Amino acid sequence: MPTASERAKSFGVAARDYDRYRIGPPPGIVDAVTQPGCETVLDLGAGTGALTRLLVRRFSTVYAVEPDQRMREVLAENCPEAVVLDGVAERIPLPAASVDAVLVSSAWHWMDPTLAIPEIARVLRPEGMLGIIWNRRDRSVPWVADLEDFRRRWTNSDDRVETRIRYFLEEQWLPVEAPFREVEVAVLPWQASVTRDEICGLLATYSGYLMAPPEQKAALMRGFRDYIHGDDRLGVQETVRMPMLCHYWRAVRA
């Protein structure tokens, strides 16, 4: 079984497919995890810029920190207005008290909270906001749950959804001495419009597919296409309304 570090590094080899097919967070999430008066924000673990694209439309200064060079290249193309930096959550390449908000979108599970939380507190100004976002498909919908099970079986992937959800349902992992208060945990339901081919492309952006032997990938993709185009529950139109849940966890720097 690949390690977490190996899985985290696997996405860079398909950075452009990742950017094209991964469903980014909804625009409404920006209001949920920032506050009035916010001018300078940091997108930490920015990937190819799904959240950064929303931030540069709203804020005067946007930093985007991403450790993978291949992801950063796509990020810089997508968001020329942002200041793109090489770095990780455990060692943020910014001065102390330099940003009004730190946002982490679908990347917190790759970070070490014991090191990342003090670093985030360091770069945040007093009263600044920490927002952790995780955007996922809504498994309470039967066809979505079946799709997720199919993907995991075919790519021999583990299922860490419940572990990730605990970050949003529990606060115990935040150290008592961490300088944060006013913790809020919530979820924003929404829908994304995607085509069947985009769903197939989406399935091919997960580490279970990316790390499969080359000779297996063609068979995996055929399996994805047969499954997606054969599921009558998706309707008759080419465009599918994908039910989504955007979880968010926010707290204020004391």
Could you characterize what this model shows?
It is a single chain. With 254 residues, this protein is α/β, with parallel strands linked by helices. It has a single domain (4-137, 159-191, 243-253), classed as Vaccinia Virus protein VP39 (Rossmann fold). It has helices spanning 4-10, 15-21, 29-33, 52-56, 69-78, 113-123, 142-155, 161-169, 196-203, 207-210, 214-230, and strands at 40-44, 61-65, 83-85, 99-105, 124-137, 180-195, 239-253. Strands 3-2-1-4-5-7-6 form a seven-stranded mixed sheet, sandwiched between helices. Helix 2 packs across helix 9 and helix 7 (142-155) packs antiparallel against helix 11 (214-230).
Q: What about the largest sheet?
A: 7 strands, mixed
Written as H for each helix and E for each strand, in order along the chain, the element string is: HHHEHEHEEHEHHEHHHE
Q: Name the CATH homologous superfamily.
A: Vaccinia Virus protein VP39
Number of helices: 11
Strand content: 25-35%
The strand line-up of the biggest sheet is 3-2-1-4-5-7-6
Describe the structure concisely for a colleague.
With about 250 residues, the chain is an alpha/beta fold.
Write the layout of secondary structure elements.
Blueprint: H1 4-10, H2 15-21, H3 29-33, E1 40-44, H4 52-56, E2 61-65, H5 69-78, E3 83-85, E4 99-105, H6 113-123, E5 124-137, H7 142-155, H8 161-169, E6 180-195, H9 196-203, H10 207-210, H11 214-230, E7 239-253
Parallel strand pairs: 1-2, 1-4, 2-3, 4-5
Antiparallel strand pairs: 5-7, 6-7
Helix pairs in contact: 2-9, 7-11, 9-11
